Amino acid sequence: MGELRKGQVPNLVLATAAFAITFWAWNLIGPLSGSYSKLLHLSPTQTSLLVAIPVLVGSLGRIPVGMLADRFGGRLMFAVICFVSIVPVLFVGWADSYGWLLFWGFLLGIPGTSFAIGIPFVNAWYEPARRGFATGVFGAGMGGTALSAFFTPRLVESLGRSTTHLLMAAALAAMGVIMLLASRNSPDWTPSSEPALPRMRDAMRIRATWQCAFLYAVAFGGFVAFSTYLPTLLQNVYEFAQTEAGLRTAGFSIAAVVARPLGGIVSDRIGAVKVLLISFVGTGIMAVVLSFEPPLEIPAGLSFVLMAFFLGLGTGGVFALVAKLVESSRVGTVTGLVGAAGGLGGYFPPLVMGAVYTATGAYTIGYLLLALTALVAALYTARAFRK
After folding, report:
1. For a disulfide at 240, which of 14, 137, 244, 348, Cβ 3.0-4.6 Å?
2. What would the mean pLDDT of 254-259 be, rounded to a whole number?
3. What is the pLDDT of residue 387?
4. The pLDDT of residue 156 is above 70
5. What is the distance of C-alpha 56 from the center of its chain?
6. For residues 332 and 70, is the Cβ–Cβ distance under 8 A?
7. Total-model pTM
């Protein structure tokens, strides 16, 4: 137990740092959507597809990556994902047509799979009573999207697009080396020797897998959708410059990042179900407020920040629930499935928002659909976990 305690903090810090760097790489396209749209004369639908495409692979890829994490451990898998991600990061920076941007943007989903490595990695380092805290702190690495929203447009303005992507590739290479040299798997972790498909079938038979997948699709999907599409939305509705939209999107992401570990910690105290109810009801209310397109800065800005806070609480709550309901040897596989659902939850809203804006010239219907979804999630949480 002493050895376990001794390694907890450094390995949690390293995993969170690797998660933040890979999530920055995953979100390289969203903050630059305005410049891509102007440069390539894209329609709102084309822009939203470009923003959403990395989310697809980053979501579905979590399923095999979660299983590989169960087999090979987080230390090796973090390094592999960092190194493999270098290729799409470089080529997105060099792409000069919509077709090539879509192709390399599709592969830019690879760094988004790192989430399915980190959850079982940190879970194994912590005793059950503190796993809400551990997964919540690790989940704060999704602040990589805030770093990207704030810094990527500014770096591109001062250094150029290809140099910015080169710097990101160097950061990924450095992080991969650090994970290999400095991190280690928990002494309590044992490699899974079961074949992948039976493990997947077993995970899919666990009721909690499907329950948590739905809840995470709403909570994390909402966060991903807004953190990738918000720069476009703010430029369309409030006519911000790209860097200004990026600054406000960073604020949105930071609010969710702060709330995520809080969601995990509070779940350890009052239970994940209560945290999830607060999250979904709050998200629904904020979505209704935003559907009226309130003026800047206090009504609109405050509503976006509060929505991010509620979504962040929910993401922390879901994985506190996973840690309570699923045995540790299956957490990687279940995390892959739940994480994939969360990412897919973030894939569709930007497409819907783009289509709604093209058809109506406003985002009202999109916001009301989010409010309805959050209400359904709250009602389901209240009924499914009454015990």
Report:
1. 244
2. 89
3. 66
4. yes
5. 12
6. yes
7. 0.81
